[in-house]
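Morning F.,

Quick status update on the modeling queue. The single chain you submitted on Monday has been processed. Sequence for confirmation:
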Amino acid sequence: MELIRWAVELGASVHGNTPNELLPALEYYYDRDHLKAFLIAGILLEMELSPSQREIVELKRCVSAYYAGLYKIGKNYADKLLAEHPEVVLYQNNVEAFEAYFNSYYDYCLYIWPYTYGSFIDVARALKWKLEQQGKTVIISETLLTNTSDTIVFGAHSYVRTPGEIPEDAIIYNLEQLYDGCPYDNIIYRNILKNRIVWDYSPQNIAWLKKKELGKEVKRVKMNYAPTLKIKTDTFIKPISEDIDVLFIGAMNGRRQAVFDQLKKLAPDLNIIFKSNVWGILRNELIVRSKIILNIHYYLTGILETPRVSHAVANHKFIISESSSPEDEVEWPGIVFVPHEKIAETVLEYLQKPEERKMLAEKAHDYFKSQD
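Structure tokens below.
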């Protein structure tokens, strides 16, 4: 990115901007880094170019999008070029390349429900990796695909707010906590689950599903380790240090707020962050910066928030969690489980034990990674 920034700065010195500094940068990255080439082409197309320059840059933007994995964007560009120049064989080939990608056949489509991407993408990527290790072909999609043997749906509980199509033979992967009177114990979600195969991570959830006679088949599919869970620290602009003493990520309610208030009262000088609705790089940076990550139940079921916990464990982070069911606790050695009323004092205790925190974090990570 420094080369791109340098080219922009040089161009800006010539009465506002000139494409003549970025054109060589496009040539430089075109065979080296397709994403950067795509970004440069987009900037250039906002500048004054000759017709021949514009034609070259548009083509390179289209090709760079394909090789950078920006297939939907690239196909739009390819279709536009072909519509404007239907006689050009190269443009015909570009469209065919995109169509071949979109028409590829997959063993599994991992379909993420609209507006739930941040909640489920980590689990979906990890599952994709696991299935691919078994020799399966897998794609993650935010649209339903027909060119697949099986569709696994993440976030189907959101149908209540954002209705959409669900194939009759789809597998529903439930990652929500289920119990009598829970927000997902409604007729709409029960009807979705009733005659479909259901995957679930939690023994308690599975017991509830069977009690309610939901799912023509219910299978436990635990969170699995995958290299995709590892946070890429080289994506951060500045070097990261553990300057956050305590981190909690999740929606707030009274019992979570009570822990935050107690911590601030006992140790007002600590850097304590409770954050909700944070995803992607922003969330990852917070996790890497944290000495201690808290897991506090939203509901009183005692079901461990395994999807959230697994991501932190995969990144060697030390976790203090509110007590969970015995089945959950035994499956996560290395996590410190304590009653709700003891969370704050346990945090203060472990802040004084950096070596033990590191040892327990490694124990949790190694056990998680060793599981089939």
